[in-house]
Each structure stands twice: as structure tokens, then as C-alpha cells.
């Protein structure tokens, strides 16, 4: 363990670490999933609960994974090992790390396909295959979606492979030279695109109706079931439960303030998710389009909106480019969880670990997800397509079980060591409140979310 720790690289600065973590947590969860869930579940009520949930479960769990990751500064499997007071930690705790890797495979199996969808829209807008220079109808938007995504598996496979190739090129340059350096440029670009789209859409005629829907909570819609659903979305939005934050914090200097970085991470993710809503809902209401379209909101409803805008094609390209950047900053870090584990557990060369990880997921995850909506549409797993099954198992089972294991590991195994890792003042009021909250309250919250997802 000692050798690995001394040789391990560290982030060049706190800012680059925070930007990388922000990139890891700001993906389709904030830009695709959050807006459509808001639209399906009462607008402002969902937004309010999301902000509360970020404080109740998001930031405490970020700290849990940061403590586990930085303690030994190793991969997300061995992070659950070593000794405490000269007594070995049971090797069975490493099952949590393996579960996280399995969850990472599950999400990447369909996540990269979504990236292929986004590239498909960008290319189609650039070539005029999707012509929104004049207003289009709901039927036109749906027909394009069905023909270019649902019924074009070879085309989507090609675009998905292109997205995988972009990831490969960056990952090959290493955690610092590749991921950190790329995020330095990608995150500011994402913010510029996001702010530009928000300004454009909130100034549309009739946009205020969408803003009111988005920000004004209808308290009658706030139920226990909705709150549990929102708590689950926080796990997805923050990339909790599949080793990302454990892996990224393993490259973090021992001098860095974990509490400060966790708060900034949670705040940044919330801000970007909320801004994504400002980018979408004012424009929907401006043109009288229902906000409750579900997962197809971005891919079927928004092209209609852009077709009504001046320079709509340009703004649509900017919007989908924003989605692609957000997806890329997340996919890089999820891939890295598996790559780092292969390098350190199997002593594998980085180039081989990258090729094996990306190639395996593409063949056994991405391709089945693509074919699951057409050629293999008759294959159903508990009534779900292959694409949806990967989403359900990773997001509703594996991530939550891994997160539960992390909280129990910190509370009942690491104990005082966790408090010492978190703060230079392990007996401070804040540290003790966090520790006891993680030990006794967080596991109960996760179990409630887990059971509600299965019922």
C-alpha cells in the first residue's frame, strides 16, 4: 500500500480537482434526466425537494466516498482494505468495490449510447437531415427520432463508437494529462454554452410562465413518494455508488479540505441542474409545448422549440454540444474507475486497461443497448428493454447497495479513522454530527429509497 501511495499522482490544484469532480457529476443526470423529471413531477415542487435532498443525502455521501478514497489513495476496490489498529479489515468488504465496478459497467452500457444519440442530432442538424429552419410539428420530431434512433441501429452504433473513441483519446493521456487537462477546457465551455442558452430562452415572449412553473412549488404535489424519488435522483446526479468519487479523491492531496470540496461539489451540481431547467422550461411554455414528455423531452420536444426560434438551428447545435460535453466529462471519470482498478489489481498497462474497458463495454453493453429497441426488441428483462434494464439495475439496485455499503463501512469499520481523515479536528461538533448522521441515518434513508424502487 505504501508504495502505491507515494507513487500516486495528485491533482495540480484544488480548482482542477473541483472542476473534474463537477464534470464527473454534471452529466446527463443534470442536463437530461433532471429536467424531464421536473416536468413529470410538478415543476417547482421537484426543484425544491432536490435542493433539500442535496443537503440531506448528497453532501454527506460525497464526504463518505471522499474519506474512503483518500484514506489509502488506491483504486475503488482496495480502498476497502488494509489494516486498522494492526488488525486486517475483512477482505469481504471489497465486495462493495466490485459492486461499484459492476454498476459502472451498467451505466456505461447505456450512457455511451445516449452520447451516440446526441452526436446523431448534432450531425443531422449540421447536414440538414433534421431541418428546423422552419417550424416543425410534434409528429415530425417524433418521426425523426424513430427513424434516426429507434430504427437505425448501425448509424447509432457508429456514433456511439465515435463517442467511445473520443473518450479513448483523452484517457490514453492519463488521469492528469488527459482527464484533468481536458476538463480545464470542457467545463468553462459548458458553462459558457449553458449561460448563453439560459439568457436566450428566458428572454423569449411568454417565458415567464415557464419560469413560474419551474420555480414556484405546488406544495400539494410534495409527497413522501416524490421525496424518496428525488433522493434517488441525487445519487444519479452526483455519480454516487459506483466508485467515481472514491477514485477521483484517491488522487487528492492529504492537505486538501474535504468538507469544503464536498460542499462546492454539491452546490455546483445543483446550480448546473437548476440552470439546465432555466434553459428548457421557459422555451417550452413560450411555444405552448407540454413539459411532461418524459425521457424524450430533450430529443423530441426541444427540436420543436428550436424550430420556432430565430437562428434555431444554431442554438440547437449549441444545446446538443452542451449535452455532449456534459456527457464526456462524466464518461471519462466513470471509465477511469474501471481502468484504475485493472491497472492496480491486475498490474495491467494503462493502454491495455483502457482498450479492454472501452472495448468490453462497447461489445457487451453498448451494442445490446442499441439493438434492444429494434432488432432485439423481443428480448425483455422483467418487462424492460435491454437499455432500460441496464438503467434500472445500475441506478436502482447496484448504486444504492454500494452507497449503503460505503456508509456502513465508514460508520462501523473505519469509525474514528474516518473522522481523522475528514478533518484535522476529528472531535469537532461538525465532524461528530456528520459521522453519527452517516452511521445511523444515511443507511436508513438509502434502504427506504432501495425498497421504494423495487415496489
Automatic annotation (TrEMBL):
GO CC field: membrane
GO terms of molecular function: symporter activity
Organism, scientific name: Pasteurella bettyae CCUG 2042
Database matches in PROSITE patterns: NA_NEUROTRAN_SYMP_1, NA_NEUROTRAN_SYMP_3
Record protein name field: Transporter
Chief localization: membrane
Pfam families listed in its UniProt record: SNF (PF00209)
Transmembrane intervals: 15-32, 44-64, 92-112, 156-179, 185-214, 226-252, 258-281, 317-342, 354-372, 392-414, 434-454
Protein location: Membrane
Similarity field: Belongs to the sodium:neurotransmitter symporter (SNF) (TC 2.A.22) family.
Keyword list, A-Z: Membrane, Symport, Transmembrane, Transmembrane helix, Transport
Membrane topology: Multi-pass membrane protein
Source domain of life: Bacteria
Amino acid at each position: 500500500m505504501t508504495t502505491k501511495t507515494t507513487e500516486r499522482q495528485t491533482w495540480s490544484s484544488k480548482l482542477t480537482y473541483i472542476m473534474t469532480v463537477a464534470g464527473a457529476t454534471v452529466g446527463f443526470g443534470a442536463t437530461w434526466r433532471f429536467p424531464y423529471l421536473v416536468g413529470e413531477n410538478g415543476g417547482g415542487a421537484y426543484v425544491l425537494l432536490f435542493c433539500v435532498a442535496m443537503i440531506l443525502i448528497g453532501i454527506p455521501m460525497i464526504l463518505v466516498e471522499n474519506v474512503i478514497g483518500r484514506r489509502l489513495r488506491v483504486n475503488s476496490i482496495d480502498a476497502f482494505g488494509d489494516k486498522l489498529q494492526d488488525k486486517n479489515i475483512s477482505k469481504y468488504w471489497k465486495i462493495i468495490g466490485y459492486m461499484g465496478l459492476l454498476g459502472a459497467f451498467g451505466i456505461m452500457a447505456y450512457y455511451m449510447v445516449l452520447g451516440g444519440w446526441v452526436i446523431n442530432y448534432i450531425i443531422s442538424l449540421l447536414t440538414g437531415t433534421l431541418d428546423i429552419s422552419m417550424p416543425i410539428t410534434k409528429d415530425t420530431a417524433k418521426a425523426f427520432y424513430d427513424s434516426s434512433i429507434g430504427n437505425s441501429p448501425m448509424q447509432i452504433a457508429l456514433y456511439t463508437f465515435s463517442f467511445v473513441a473520443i473518450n479513448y483519446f483523452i484517457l490514453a493521456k492519463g488521469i492528469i494529462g488527459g482527464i484533468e487537462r481536458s476538463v480545464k477546457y470542457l467545463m468553462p465551455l459548458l458553462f459558457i454554452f449553458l449561460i448563453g442558452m439560459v439568457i436566450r430562452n428566458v428572454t423569449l415572449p411568454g417565458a415567464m410562465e415557464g419560469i413560474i412553473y419551474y420555480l414556484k412549488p405546488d406544495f400539494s404535489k410534495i409527497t413522501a413518494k416524490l421525496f424518496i424519488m428525488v433522493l434517488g435522483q441525487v445519487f444519479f446526479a452526483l455519480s454516487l455508488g459506483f466508485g467515481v468519487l472514491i477514485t477521483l479523491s484517491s488522487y487528492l492531496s492529504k492537505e486538501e479540505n474535504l468538507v469544503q470540496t464536498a460542499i462546492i461539489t454539491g452546490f455546483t451540481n445543483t446550480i448546473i441542474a437548476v440552470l439546465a431547467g432555466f434553459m428548457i422550461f421557459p422555451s417550452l411554455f413560450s411555444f405552448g409545448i407540454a413539459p411532461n414528455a418524459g425521457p424524450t423531452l430533450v430529443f423530441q420536444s426541444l427540436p420543436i422549440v428550436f424550430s420556432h426560434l430565430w437562428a434555431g438551428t444554431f442554438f440547437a447545435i449549441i444545446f446538443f454540444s452542451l449535452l455532449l460535453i456534459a456527457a464526456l466529462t462524466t464518461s471519462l471519470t466513470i471509465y477511469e474507475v474501471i481502468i484504475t482498478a485493472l491497472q492496480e489489481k491486475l498490474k495491467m498497462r494503462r493502454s491495455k486497461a483502457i482498450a479492454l474497458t472501452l472495448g468490453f463495454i462497447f461489445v457487451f453493453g453498448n451494442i445490446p443497448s442499441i439493438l434492444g429497441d429494434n432488432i432485439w426488441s423481443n428480448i425483455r428483462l422483467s418487462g424492460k428493454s435491454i437499455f432500460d434494464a441496464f438503467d434500472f439495475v445500475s441506478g436502482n439496485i447496484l448504486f444504492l447497495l454500494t452507497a449503503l455499503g460505503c456508509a456502513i463501512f465508514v460508520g462501523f469499520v473505519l469509525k474514528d479513522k474516518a473522522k481523522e481523515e475528514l478533518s484535522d479536528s476529528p472531535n469537532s461538533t461538525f465532524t461528530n454530527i456528520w459521522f453519527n448522521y452517516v452511521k445511523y441515518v444515511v443507511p436508513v434513508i438509502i434502504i427506504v429509497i432501495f425498497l421504494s424502487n423495487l415496489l
